Amino acid sequence: MKKLIRYLSCAIVVGMASVVTGGANPIIGMGFPPVSQAAHRDFTIRALGNLDIEHIRIVENWRRRGMDPDFSPLVQRITHLNGAGIKVLLTVQSNGPNAACARRNAHSCLIREDAPFEDYLTGLLAAVGDHIEAIQFGNEWDNQFVGTSADFLNLHQRFSSVVRAERPELPIVLGGITGRAAYAQAACVEGVEVHIPNLEISAQVHKFCRKEAGRNARAQADVRHVLAHADFDAVDIHLYDTEDLWPAAVQWLTALSRGREVWVTEFGGPTPELEPKDPAYQSQRLRAYLDVIGRLPIKRAYYFKLLDDDGSIHKHSGLYDKRAKPKPALEIFSQYQR
C-alpha cells in the first residue's frame, strides 16, 4: 500500500470526468533530446526528422555559465539545430552561481536582489534571442524551487521584464508546473478515477487524497497565486503516468490561465517504481498517453523523452535505449505522427 501511495505521489509531483475534444491535435515536440555534442545533435536531427518533429525543449543554466558567462557553446548548439529546421523552446533554470544566490537546494537557487540577473538575461537574449521560438524561467518550480511561490514570482517578473524589453516578440511560457495541484483537483475534488493496467489503486487514491490534503491545498494556492499575478503568454504543465487525470487537470489549469494558451512541455511514463519496465509494456502505455494527448485542448505537447538515461525518474521512457537502439515505443510514436 505504501508503494502505491508513493506511486501516486510520483505521478502527481512529476505531472477524466469526460474527454475534452476542443482544440485537438496539438503540435508534438520532444523534451530534452541530446544536443550537447555535434554527434548528439546529428542523432537528434535524424531521429526527429524521421518522426516529423520540428519543436524541442532544451535547458540553459546560469550556474554552469558562471558570473562571466560565455554563451558561444549554446549559440553553436541552437544554430546547428536551427539549420536543420528545428525550433527551440529554451528553459532557463531558476539557478545561478553561488555568488548570485541567497540560498540554494539541489535544483534551484534564490537569486539575490543585487545579483546581476538582468545582465545575464540581457546577454543570453542578445546571443540566442533570434534563434529560439519561446522562453521560460524555472522548471517544476512548484516542487523544486528553494523559496516560496512569492519568491519565485518575484524572479519570474524580473525575468519577464528583461524579455519584454529586449525581445518583446518572444513568447514567455510560465512553467513548468508539476501535476500535483491539478491532479489533486481531478482525483481528490472531482473524483476522477485512475486506472493503471494490472494495478488496483482506487482505494489508495482515496487514501492519498486524505493523507496529502494539506500539501495539495498549498500547491493549489501557490499555482493560483502565481498565475494570477505573473506576466506570461502561455502556461505549461507536466503530465505523467496517470492519463485518466489529464483532461480534468488541463481543464483546471485552463480556467486559471486568464485566456492564455496551455502547453504540456513534458508528458510520458510509465513510472519505473511500480509499473513494468519492459519495452513492450512501455509501448502499450505510450499508445494510451498519445490517445489522450491528441484530444486535449492544448497547443503544444513535448514527449519525455527521445533517449533512455540514468538521470531522470522516467529513465526508461525513451523511444531509443541508452545505446540509441530503437525500442517498440518508437513505432507507436511513428504511427501516431503519421
Question: Strand order within the widest sheet?
Answer: 6-3-2-1-10-9-8-7
The termini sit apart by 41 Å
Which secondary-structure class do the elements indicate? alpha/beta
The count of strands amounts to 10
InterPro entries: GH
Protein name: Asl1-like glycosyl hydrolase catalytic domain-containing protein
Organism: Amylibacter marinus
Question: What's a quick, concise take on this entry?
Answer:
InterPro entries: GH (IPR017853). This protein has helices at residues 2-13, 38-50, 62-65, 72-83, 117-128, 141-144, 149-166, 180-189, 202-211, 213-229, 246-256, 279-293, 328-337, and strands at 27-31, 55-60, 87-92, 101-104, 109-111, 134-137, 173-177, 234-240, 261-268, 300-303.
